Each structure stands twice: as structure tokens, then as C-alpha cells.
Amino acid sequence: MAVYDLEEQEKLDDLKAWWNRWGNLVSGVVVAVALGVFAVQGWRWWQGSQAEQASVLFAAVNTAAKSNDVEKAKEAAGQLAAKFGGTGYAPRAALLVAKLMFDAGDTAGATAQLQSVLDRASEDELKQIARIRLAEIQFETKQYDNALRTLDARRDEPFAGVYEDLRGDILAAAGRTSEARTAYQTALTKLDSKGQYYSFVQAKLDAIGGPLAADGGKSAPTMGAAGAPPANAPLSRPATVPDTSGSTSTGAPPK
Q1: In the predicted structure, residue 255 carries a pLDDT above the cut 80
Q2: CA 62/CA 56 separation, integer angstroms
Q3: pTM
């Protein structure tokens, strides 16, 4: 029995020695892991709380937009940007307010809202939508060079047809017909040939002379200019740009 007690004592002595050497490190690791778990849980709670509060303000913007109340929409969007600018709701609210302001004739205000999306949004899709709308405003206000520069930014393939269609509109309005025809032709290669938007772009191309021939000459137009929509189509173009500014099929903004 004495031998057994001695062995136990040796084990206890070894354990004490090990703890004296490594105990502080082990305790530190355990505390760090515990703090990390609490920090992650706290961060998730905080993000959820922020998203919930932001969603309330976004709903206010959406309601004001539906009733065409520009001032209420601007106020709610301003609070949303100031308090919860890092959420996905803020840029979507800015897109809604930009549309309201443009329709109300406030192009400067609409431009500022769109620029805020370009400066702060973390989602590339929202930035690409904002660029299209900004270029449309610049086009409407005859800032053709600025509009073309806006469209020169990188864009994803689903947006290519819309970008090139708008580029064609701008070039046609600026009197650069040959370049406009090229832009429309490029747009057609990016669009669904069975869709209405394709037909809309094709009509505009036909109205300014039809597609350019391979040798740079003119191909005969298939539709007379009198039967086609104007080259400088307004903002109501049937562009199939994904609209993620409100409650759409794309779902709610990410939290």
C-alpha cells in the first residue's frame, strides 16, 4: 500500500510541476477562447440588432416612396445612412430616394444619393445599378462625356447589354452615330434575342441606319426611323436591370 501511495505522490508532484510550468499558459488560452466565443456571439447579436433597427427605417423609406412623399423618404434615408450605413438597407434606400428625387426634378439630389451608393455600398450589384441610373441622369442633363465615363466602369456580364444600350443612346444624342450603332450592336449580342428589350434596342439601331457592315459600310435598315423609338430614350426604357432597391424577387437586403 505504501508503494501505491508513493506512486500517487509522484504523479501529484509531476502534475504540480507541469502546472507550475504551463498553468498560466493554459489558463490564458482558456480565457482567450472564452472571450473569443463571447465576442463572436456579442458581435452577431449587435449585427442582428443593427439590421433590425435598419429594417424599420428602410420600411419607412419604402412606405414614403410608395406614397411619393419625397421629404419623408429623404428624412428616413438620412437617418438610415447616418446610423446604419454599414447595413445592406442603406444603399437600397438611397436608390429609392434617388428615383423619387429625379422624378421630382431634383437631379442634383438624385445624383448625390447615387454617388453615396457608389462610395459606400459593399455589394457590386448595387453599385452597377447606381452607375446605370447616374449615367441616365447625366444623359438626360446632356452631360454626355460624363455619362460615357460613368459607363466605362467595370460591370458584370448580366449588366453588359443594358450598359451598351445606354451607351448607344448617349452616343446617338451626341451625334456620334457610327459609334452608337456599334454600341447597339454590342448590346444585342448580350441580350436575349427573344425578349422585348432586344426588340427595343433593335428598333433603335434600325432607326439610325441599322447594323454596320463588316467593311464599315452601312447595312440597309429594316425599320424606318418614323416607326422606331427615339435614340435618346428616356429613363422609362424597358431596361431589365435587377432592382434590389426595394422588396423584389431578389429578397431582403443582407444583414
Answers
A1: no
A2: 10
A3: 0.69
